[in-house]
Structure formats: C-alpha cells, structure tokens
Amino acid sequence: MEPADIVKNAFAMPLTSPSFARGPYRYTNREYLVITYRTDRAAIEQNFHDIKEVHGAGKQQLRNYWANIAAYHLTMWLHTLIELWAWKKPRRELSDRSASPWDDPTRRPSHADRRNALRRQCLKNEFQHAEAAGTIPRKIHHLWQRLLKLVA
What we know:
Blueprint: H1 3-9, H2 41-53, H3 65-85, H4 91-94, H5 111-133, H6 138-151
Helix pairs in contact: 3-5, 5-6
C-alpha cells in the first residue's frame, strides 16, 4: 500500500476496517450526530511499547520540566523518522534472523529491527567513505564486518 492510496481511500478510520460506510450522507431532522471511532488497541499498545522500551521514552531525567517534554518529543520524532526510513524496505533488509535459528524468519520486523537496520546502513556508509579515502587492509575490513554484525 502506497501513501497515495491511503490519502485516496481514507474516508474513515481505521483504514482497513472503517467505522462507517462511504458517503454521501443525508442528515435531516437531526439535532446532533455522534460518530464513533474504533482503533486497534493492540497496535497502539505495541507502538507505545516500542517508544518506551526501544528508545527509553520517559526515562530521561532532566532538571527542567520543559526539557523533559522536549526530550520526549525528540524521542517520538526519532521513532517516526525510523519508521519512515523503513517504510519501503524489504523484510530481509530490515532483519537478519540467521544468528537466531529459533526465531521465526517470517515474523514482521519489529521497531528494534528497523532501528538496527538503520544503524547498519549508517555504519556501512561511514565505512564506504573511509574506504574511498584510502586503502584499508583486508584484516581491518573483515574486523569491520564482524563489528557491524555485533553493533547493530
């Protein structure tokens, strides 16, 4: 599903299970209208869990009240930007489950998997810039590859 499809088809929320039918509507002789909103509670709880556990939102202890609010907002932005970066990435690029054979390889990548994939990408970019600047011995190259697997 593309973002343009969401904009085109988003007449009610949640998108995959709308609360009410597509219009047009006629409201005659009604004093008020009540529209209910349904959500997937499990999805909201999982998203909040990722923000708290993966990024540590709410664990910052700053002296100023507004600094705490700013830190929380930065954490939320970080979460959003990682999700945006991983939007069109294939699953195999986001999570490598070869090191854990007990894990289900078809499992959806978690936010931590997405964050680690972004870390790997950033480290690879840095290493490629270092390689472009000069020659790096083969031993250092192999050590870098092993480090890359350990870090992210």
